[in-house]
Amino acid sequence: MTNMSCIERQLRRTAPARGGSKNELVTPSTEALSRVNGWACPPHSFQLVGWTVYSYMAIVGLGIYIPLLPSPWSQITYSLTGTAFIVHLVTHLVAVSVDPAEAGVRAKRTYSNPMPVFDKTKQPHVIHNLHCYLCKINVDPKVKHCGVCNKCVEDFDHHCKWLNNCVGGRNYWYFFVAVCSATLGVLLLLIVLLFIFIQHYIDPACLRSAPQFNSVLNNGTWLVFLPLAPMETSSACLLVLAFLTVMVASASLLLLGHLLFFHIYLLANKMSTYDYIMKQRRKQAVVQDVELGVPQSSESNVGEIHTSMEPPIDCDASLSHSIGSCNYPEKGKISSRLSGSFCTELENLTKPPEKDNRLFYGTEQPARVIPGDVGMDIHMG
Question: % helix / strand / coil in the chain, to the nearest 5?
Fold first, then answer.
């Protein structure tokens, strides 16, 4: 009985086994399991960084710098910033906790068990003709099978590393509100920090209006964590900590602002992140066809070929280092409005399929092959 259970666990994989023998058994890794939500182990490093930055800003902003503001600005800033941080906390937790899987997947009691092996000899894609061969359900065109969470996601938008969860129809608005509230909270905190940094040199007396400062004789001594637990610190420590916090807040605001405006753009154009990347991919396909001298029968046919092999959408606009161009070894630099993370996703398309065992497939339609397009098929995998 023990041997049979071990064999059963070994056969339930999501990626082909490496090796020449078809009978070779490979123990499935944690990537073979379908992840229920963002709390599934292992946590992503971005998720840990996000929680660390949030905790740091909440403690430093609400505990050290906002109490130094003169009345009534301290009360107003407390209300606005505190509300933004609380709203972000609640919506972030909900976005992480919600299972964005398709209804048919969620109806299965054991869908978090390891998936069977995807056999390309039996069907060309994970989702083909609106049927997922891994989740074993019929899906609608907006459902995609996420290779990271290893399940079909309803109204798939993207896989968010900061949430460690997919963003789909069931949690998209929680994700969007979390981004909005985080952007507002960081912006308010940055304004407070800059005000305190300037006033410390121009008029430090206005920052010492709290009653607790009456017992402090030395003007170089400052109090933090007012009014509940006042602690003395030096002027140098206060300024150094403010400078470091300004750097962290500025970097966070750039990332959050980029992500927020990107999703506002998507909403205004009634697109998802997945749709945006597929649109950019079709544009790149046309460019490649022109450079290779492939005859263009129609734009729709080109789109069908490339949408039959979908890219991994586990990206966030906030991860970009710059908005500019993507580099390709064969073609040099291609100008684009994609973020750095999107460039990474597009660059993954040039890798041979045998080098990537993770499955990133979406809803597939039968593709019509254009005569003379062999070079493109080899390049795209």
Answer: 50, 10, 40
Question: Which single residue is written with the structure tokens 């900061």?
Answer: 162
- Calculate the CA 285 to chain-centre distance: 25
For the entire predicted model, the pTM comes to 0.70
- Pull the structure tokens for residue 132: 């997922």
Residues 351 and 378: beta-carbon distance below 8 Å? no
| pLDDT band at 216; cut points 50, 70, 90 | confident
- Which of these, 230, 188, 181, 192, lies nearest to 66 by C-alpha position? 192
> Which of 146, 152, 160, 180 is flagged as catalytic?
160
Strand-pairing partners, residue 222, are 233
CA distance 23 to 6: 15
- The counts of H helices and E strands in the chain are 10, 11
Annotated catalytic residue 160: yes
The pLDDT tens digits for 20-68 are 433 333 333 344 578 889 998 889 999 999 999 999 999 999 999 999 9
| Residues above pLDDT 70, as percent of the chain | 67
